[in-house]
Design brief:
single chain; about 220 residues; alpha+beta; Muramoyl-pentapeptide Carboxypeptidase, domain 2; 8 helices; about 10% strand
Length: about 220
């Protein structure tokens, strides 16, 4: 087992598990709407990528270096989720896309409600909500993410970045960059709406052909 397992490793693994939870939620809701056919579609993808994590981090890593294990886990869960979305789109056509985006929002809202309970947050300032969101939203390895931050204290918080840490997983799965970007953006919308007081907007996106991604969190309630 890796000699050093610190809080940051458990923090990142928790976010990996949230992606798996979102994927399972997607599959359950598709099964409710489309029946056994949806279950069969998802099972085919699971056979390619393997089952979900079912043990604590300490039991999973074996002799693998922790950084390597976490990087490979991110690739696995993000590619598998995108592959399931791709398979649902191919199987269910126009009925699937809107439902996928609806489910992303619903799951994000569910996690936002959990954040309210966990952190006792109510009507936060944008930078506080952004900090809490980072504890739930998987966005690569901490050492990989380079962002530019702009803020007007207590009113507006902006994050910009010129590279997307998700895009290669979506491309490996063969699913549209634009759809997957919208999928994650809807999840963040739901998360923020559950906490209340701050609105999230994605105003630019590499996946839509812009030169960078830009996300804005805007205070909408009180001071």
């Amino acid at each position: 087992m890796s000699l050093f397992l610190g809080p940051i490793h458990h923090w990142l693994f928790k976010k990996i598990l949230i992606v798996e939870e979102r994927e399972r939620f997607l599959c359950r809701e598709f099964a409710k709407r489309f029946g056994k056919k949806a279950t069969d579609v998802a099972d085919k993808v699971l056979k390619r990528f393997g089952e979900h994590f079912d043990r604590p981090l300490e039991k999973l890593i074996g002799n693998m270096p922790i950084h390597e294990f976490l990087a490979e886990s991110i690739e696995r869960v993000e590619t598998r989720e995108a592959s399931i979305i791709k398979a649902f789109l191919e199987e269910f056509g126009d009925d699937a896309e809107g439902f996928i985006l609806e489910l992303a929002y619903r799951h994000g809202r569910r996690k936002g409600e959990e954040a309210v309970e966990e952190y006792g947050v109510k009507n936060p300032i944008p930078e506080k909500l952004y900090t809490i969101l980072r504890n739930f939203f998987l966005d690569g390895m901490p050492c990989d993410h380079v962002v530019e931050i702009e803020q007007k204290p207590h009113k507006k918080f902006i994050e910009r970045h010129k590279s997307c840490l998700h895009r290669r997983y979506w491309q490996n799965a063969g699913v549209s960059d634009a759809l997957m970007c919208e999928y994650l953006s809807r999840w963040v919308d739901g998360f923020c709406d559950a906490i209340d007081g701050v609105k999230h907007m994605k105003t630019k996106s590499l996946a839509r052909g812009d030169l960078l991604c830009e996300d804005i969190w805007l205070k909408t309630k009180g001071e």
